[in-house]
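Deliverable D5.2: sample structural annotation.
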Amino acid sequence: MHLIEVSVPGQQHAARRKASYLLGGYIAGGLLSTDEASAALEAAVERTAKNVRRAMQTIRTGLQAGAQRPITAEALEADWEAYSAAHPRRHGTTQYPPDFVDSWLGPRHTWHGIPIAVRRRAS
């Protein structure tokens, strides 16, 4: 959980909230399992927090709040379409550029090392 691990004192609570909210949305959207997200968040908290119990309460609250706004594969694709429309490539391709996918989800559909199962619905 890079976001949590690079946060500085005074910003750690906000980083935990942001990361857990995002992963809560991925869990609700079916892109990530609860166990995978919880394990990654807990490991990051244990490495960085002075008060692990209080930090984990922030994580639990963030996961619950994020679950109220699921992030689905369709939503990610719609975001990509909006991004590509606003930032056309010179040669006109609409394929996912590797640098965009890697910086956002990480290589091979991971988010900071957590595997994300991108599921597409049958048309």
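Annotation notes: The chain is about 60% helix and 5% strand. The helical segments are 2-5, 12-28, 34-48, 52-67, 73-86, 98-104.
The annotation will be released with the project's public dataset once the embargo ends.
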